[in-house]
Amino acid sequence: MKVYFLGTGTSQGIPIIGSDHEVCKSIDFKDKRLRVSAWITWEGYSYVIDCGPDFRQQMLASNCRKIDGILFTHEHADHTAGLDDIRPFNYRQGDIPIYAHKRVLVDIKKRFEYIFETENKYPGSPSVKAIEIFDNVPFSVGNKMAIPITVMHGKLQVFGFRIDDFAYLTDVKTIAESEMEKLKGLKVLVVNALREELHDTHFNLQEALDFIALLKPEKAYLTHISHMLGFHEVVQKKLPDNVFLAYDNLEITL
Ligand SMILES: [Zn+2]
User: Which segments constitute the Metallo-beta-lactamase domain (predicted)?
Assistant: First the structure.
């Protein structure tokens, strides 16, 4: 299985428009972060997690040519706003399956009403096949099963996903003991780490490191990163040996 980090930034992306912050002005490509998303492939199967406002650019950069489904973590704009740009995939493949919690599907239908129009739908509009996913109910993705993991983003429920020994969690602030059980024995864990200061709805760096220390995956990659976390190169040196800052266009193989 290959995991390609399409975007590793927090909601505004890095650089932030108009910012004079030193990290926003960095010339290191690892300090430029599109909105958070990942692309997972194995044996010809291809799934994308989230579809934020940078989706088009991410599909071009990664040279992704086929999508078997989009797994949504939650409805926030930095995770959903790019849905109109699935059209090139629609023209080649037809409807694209989207997997999400019922609440998220309802929200997406509001945000993208025209996609779900049944009468007089504008020709060429995106088309999706909405598939609801449920707490504690694994669902099939290609020839594998994805296990949904419920995490809390402040008061909002968010799904993370485990496929084999890989798990991807973003926008986590808290997680129940029962969900921790589903994350044992991981080879690779991806988890969000916003910055050093505490935040109401996201793990800060220390919370993410504590979480990784509890779960003990072989390797962990941090994502959904703010410019406030600092320069990639500086932060990476402070991390434990098995923890890495993800960066855009990083590809790992499991
Ligand atoms: Zn987010």
Answer: 35-224
Residue 121 CA to ligand 1 center (angstroms) comes to: 30
User: Separation of 209 CA from ligand 1 center, angstroms?
Assistant: 19
Model confidence band, residue 155 (pLDDT cutoffs 50, 70, 90): very high
Which 3 state secondary structure label does DSSP give 208?
helix
Structural Rg of the chain based on CA atoms: 17
Calculate how far, in angstroms, residue 176's C-alpha sits from the geometric centre of ligand 1.
Answer: 20
Reduced to 3 states (helix: H, G, I; strand: E, B; else coil), residue 213 is: helix
Separation between Cα atoms, residue 241 and residue 73, nearest integer Å: 28
- Give the pLDDT confidence score for residue 219 in this predicted structure: 98
- 3-state secondary structure labels for all residues of 9-42: ECCCCECCCCCCCCCCCCCCHHHCECECEEEEEE
Across the range 99-120, mean pLDDT stands at: 96
pLDDT per position as a tens digit, 192-214: 999 999 999 999 999 999 999 99
The predicted structure's pLDDT at residue 127: 96
- Set out the domains of the chain in order of their start, with CATH numbers: 2-253 (3.60.15.10)
Q: What is the pLDDT of residue 241?
A: 97
How remote is the CA of residue 208 from the centroid of ligand 1, in Å? 15
Q: Which one-letter amino acid corresponds to residue 111? A: R
Please give the Cα distance from 108 to 96 (Å, whole number).
14
Give distance in angstroms: CA of 217 to centre of ligand 1: 23
Give the Å distance between the CA of 10 and the centre of ligand 1.
6
Amino acid, res. 207: E
Quote the ligand 1 centre to 11 CA distance (angstroms).
6
